[in-house]
Structures are given as structure tokens and as C-alpha cells.
Amino acid sequence: MSTEAHEPRAIDLTAGDRIAVVAGSGLLPREVANGLVRAGHRPLVVAITGEADLEDDPARYDFMRVTHEELGKLLSILKRRGVTHLVLAGGVARRPPLSTLRYSPKILLYLPRLAASYARGDDGLLRAIIGFIESYGIKPVGAHEVVPELLAPAGLLTGTAPTSSDEKDISAAIAAARAIGRLDIGQAAVAVGGRVIALEDIEGTDGLLRRAKALRTHGRLAGKTRGVLVKCAKPAQELRVDLPTIGPQTVKDAHEAGLAGIAVESERSLILECGETVRLANLLGLFLLGFKRGREE
Predict the structure, then answer these.
(1) Is residue 6 situated within a structural domain?
(2) Cβ contacts of residue 252 below 8 Å, gap of 6+?
(3) Which of 167, 226, 260, 265 has a CA that sits 20 to 30 A from residue 139's CA?
């Protein structure tokens, strides 16, 4: 399998195609399922127990629930149910020990590769999973490929615009986010006063903004106002999974951290509940900006 980034593009599903959505935590699985239903499809939603909050809705989609331990047998089941395309949507907080997973016979051929990737980090594991899905003749697709309206557009989305000092923060945070992305650490950074003050790690964007808020609350940023959150794709990221994502909660958390706005990489980031996200940013006086891929590279 190629290790090059899979560039965002919309796909056309034909009448004979059958798409499944493996639903983890967060808003993304619901957004994907709703988008597919609006487009006239009837997806199969596979909710991971303890992660997804989606429930059975027989009028709109087919539904099944699996535990973390049953994920090893999931592809065999999906293949038997005629699935041709698969979207991995949402987070998975718990990685069960490999010894507890229930396997299909075919997975035994991939166990050495999956085990090595399991310990290497998110990018390695996600690439191995993509390859395993493809080995079943099922096409992995990104959420943005079936619901393209989720992609962040380029340009300013709010009535409030960044100031010249905000632009310096954006540039500093982009450079930092790309640097940690190359190391497969995270996708986001916060800059205040032209300096990077916090980087995303295993705690995700929620944890990043909590730390930024704590720095301001504890007086570590005395005299420093405003500041910016930036999110962008890792330079070599597999874009069919784990695109940088923001939503209404991100705006609330950024506001509580005293930030002036949020900048995300256009066409390589997702905005969930976009209308509500923009409305909330306008209400709280934050700017929301989509910057193009080439900036600061």
C-alpha cells in the first residue's frame, strides 16, 4: 500500500455500492450518517460499544453494535453483508490488549504487521488498518469523500477577522503544528503573543485548550491577551482517517482559554455542525479562518 497522503476528493456511490460507517466517539459519526441519508443512501452504522452514542434508527439506516474485542472479526461480517465502502468515523479512546481480541482467520496473516503498528503510534496503526481493510476488497473512504460539505473552506468564515498580531500567532502555531505532525505527536498548537505556548499530545485538542486556559488562569501569560488555536493535517497523514476536526465545543473551549480565534487547514480539516460552529464563534467574538495548505510550509 502506498504511504503517500490520500488527497481529499468526493466519490460517487452507485446503486450497487454498500457503505458502512464504523462509529467511534464524538459528533463525526452522526454527521457522516446524516449526510449519507440526506444523499439518498442507507448506510450500515456499526457503533463501537462505550465509544459511539448513535442508536438504532431503522427508518434511516441499518445498525449493529460491536465491542472493541469484536473488531477483529468485523470485516468478515461486513464482507458477508455486501459492504463495498467503509468510513472510519470518530475517536476510539480504548485500545484493548491484542490478546483479548477476537480474530477472523485472515487476520492471523496481518497480526505481525498490526502488532508492530500497534506500538508505533497513530499514523502507523491507521495505515496498517487501512491496508487490512483493503485486503478484504472493501474500499476505505474518508468522511469528507462521502460528505464533502464537512471540509473546511478557505477564507474567513466569521464577521470577526484576525488582527496583524493574530496573523503572527497563526504563523507561529502553523509551524509548530506541522513540526509535531512530522513526529506523529499531534495536529494542533496554540500561540499567544507570537510564541507557541502549548502543543497537542495524546490528550487531543480538548486537553490542549485546557492547558492553555490553565496557563492564563495561573498567571503564566500575565499581560498577554488574545492568542490562536491552529489545526492542520500531519504532513504525511493518511487523510482517509483522523482529519483535524473542530466543532461547537472547540469554539467554546477556545473562548474559555481566552483565545481570539481558530485557524484550520482548508480542504484538509473538518468542521462539524458548521452552521452552529460559525454562529457560536460570531456570538463569542472569535474569528474562524481556513488557511491554504501551502502556508508556512
Answers:
(1) no
(2) 280, 284
(3) 265
Supply the pTM of this predicted model. Answer: 0.85
Taking residue 239's Cβ as centre, other Cβ atoms within 10 Å add up to: 18
How many domains are there within the chain? 2
Helices and strands (DSSP H and E) totals, the chain: 9, 13
CB 145 within 8 A of CB 271: no
10 falls within a domain: no
Could you say which of 126, 146, 166 is where a domain stops?
A: 146
Return the percent helix, strand and coil in the chain, to nearest 5.
Answer: 40, 20, 40
Beta strand pairing call for 139-141 and 188-192: unpaired
Please indicate, yes or no, whether residues 228 and 272 belong to a single structural domain of this protein: yes
Per the structure, the complete domain to which residue 129 belongs is given by 19-146
273 and 158 share one domain:
yes
5 occurs within a structural domain: no
Instruction: Indicate if 128 and 177 belong to the same structural domain.
Output: no
Per-residue pLDDT in tens (0 to 9) along the chain, 297 residues: 333 444 545 678 888 899 999 999 999 999 999 999 999 999 999 999 999 999 999 999 999 999 887 887 899 999 999 999 999 999 877 665 555 555 555 555 555 555 555 555 566 667 777 888 898 999 999 999 999 999 999 999 999 999 999 999 999 999 999 999 998 899 999 999 999 999 999 889 999 999 999 998 887 786 678 999 999 999 888 888 889 999 999 999 999 999 999 999 999 999 999 999 999 999 999 999 999 987 766
